[in-house]
Amino acid sequence: MPTTPARTCEHCSSPLPLMARQHARYCDTRCRSKAFRAKKNALPVELTTCDRWVRRAADKRPLTVAGMAASSTDPRTWSTHKSATASTAGAGLGFVLSDEDDIVCIDLDHCLNPLTGRLAPWAAAILRDAGTTYVEVSPSGDGLHIWGRATVRQGRRIRRPDGTAVEIYGTGRYIAMTGRRHGNAPSILADMTSLVSRLLP
Prior knowledge:
The structure is a single chain. The protein starts with about 30 loop residues before the first helix and ends with a helix. The longest helix is centred in the first third of the chain and has 12 residues, at about 30-40. Strands 4, 5, 6, 7, 8 and 10 form a six-stranded mixed β-sheet that branches. The protein has a four-stranded antiparallel β-sheet with strand order 2-1-3-9. By secondary structure, it is of the alpha+beta class. A hairpin with a 5-residue loop joins strand 1 and strand 2 (about 60-65). The protein has helices spanning about 30-40, 45-50, 80-85, 120-130, 195-200; strands spanning about 55, 60-65, 90-95, 105-110, 135, 145-150, 155-160, 165-170, 175, 190. Helices cover about 20% and strands about 20% of the residues. The radius of gyration is 20 Å and the shape is globular.
């Protein structure tokens, strides 16, 4: 008679308890919580392997991991993702954009209803054109940061006819990070060259 293979925890791969429910996926509540956090906060490796992380104050000023003033143009004030995450300075994390690579961020303000999750049509169109790329909710809760790759040497704030604004940055700026992925955004950076070309006048 064939034996049923032992079920294992999706997070730590340990065998599930014998009395675990049929639909159980984790060995205990700790593993379930860790798996949920890892899934929710999975940043692209292109970002986490760059030593361009800072902390940020509640008023969005960049800070070093020691809580001193940081600068988006001074590498001496930046840190690794691990160090920045371990620091308790300020209110959260920030990532510095640099001309060392082609990582860019498109910042959409006031486009997301934080209660319903509904996206404004103009922002939904930009998000669709960005392709399969990492997107997270901004610290305000009503904006989006769309991350990808393109060549942007001069950051721009583009005022749209309807009064909304789109900001595109690729160097000399830091972006406040939340780790709150929008929808099912993947942990990868897409090539957004064509989108950036269309958005920039």
